[in-house]
Amino acid sequence: MRLLRLFFIVVALCATFFYVTTYRSSHLWPTSALSRPDRVDIIEAAGGGADDAEEQNNISVYRKNIESVVNITSREVSFNFFYGLQPAEGQGSGFIIDKEGHILTNYHVISEARQVEVTLHNLKKYRATVVGTDSLHDLAVIQIKATDLTPMVLGDSRNLQVGQKVYAIGNPFGLSGTLTSGIVSSIRKVQEPNGTTIDEAIQTDAAINPGNSGGPLLNRHGDVIGINTMIASDVNQSSGIGFAIPVNTAKAVLNDLVTLGRVRRPALGISTIPISPELAGQMGLPADYGLLIVQVVQGGAAERAGLRGGSERAYLGNTPIYIGGDLIIAIDGEKVQDQQDLSQSMNSHRAGDTVKITVYRGKSKMDFTVTLGEARQQV
Predict the structure, then answer these.
(1) Residue 83 — very low, low, confident or very high, per pLDDT cuts 50/70/90?
(2) Which of the residues 213, 238, 271, 345 is marked catalytic?
(3) Which among 68, 74, 102, 108 is annotated as catalytic?
């Protein structure tokens, strides 16, 4: 009797458990109502909303230039102690500058390459030839044989203002056709990892990463104002501080790179010392800034134009110099206060260009037109 009673209790418990966990649940929560409805009601945004002015400009700049930006793959061979010669590959960006297929990029993108390949936006690939290099300015021109190319418009990098809108197009980490935007953060002199110096480099917070090197930095009109070249980062990726070479520096050497394969660096053919207010007072000079010409190169650009060096021997500390020469205070109307100003002026010109140099000779202010020579003539 006890066993029979225990049997009925077990059966009752099992029936109750089945009812609660299975039968009742399936009737209270029908599967079709919970997970398989006839349709899903969602809230959709109203279609046809117009882009605002900034978005429209972003789109316009991208569409105007994307077909002109290229992906550059450089292949080189390096030596490994254990495995011997090993192939290596690097990537960068560049942009088309004329219908003949010339492409401007960074020198460091192709410097060690044995083979250079260019991929256009339409994914067509071309073997490229290195036409000219300028390691001092980290610039290079390569060329492909292709048709129906769209060159970019080279703008003006003078008088850029901090806060101006800029765009970078390139191939960061190999991701082709990428657009980033930002502003001009500063204009400053910077030194690249290889030791070369960029005068008036354009600092920007537009995201620039490995693979962007050689690509264009654009203004809001879509004109090229710089060539993206380096980032300041401890992790080798964007930290909001990138730098571009001013496009005017590139424009000054492009003709030489394409026609000669090298740059004829301009020079005045002079040796100078910077003038401070203290030195100006001691020498009785009419201006308390500028570059005093100590010596002119015989037959050089300055001498041919009529500029004069010093004739009276003096000492600057323990260094013998000659004073009494012309005091340069401006080039092409731009104030010259030190050697850096002179260097920046030369970087925007090439040999054969003419410049107007304003000097003081004694107390008289005079202008001279000088045809620049080549740098090897400089003292």
Answers:
(1) very low
(2) 213
(3) 108
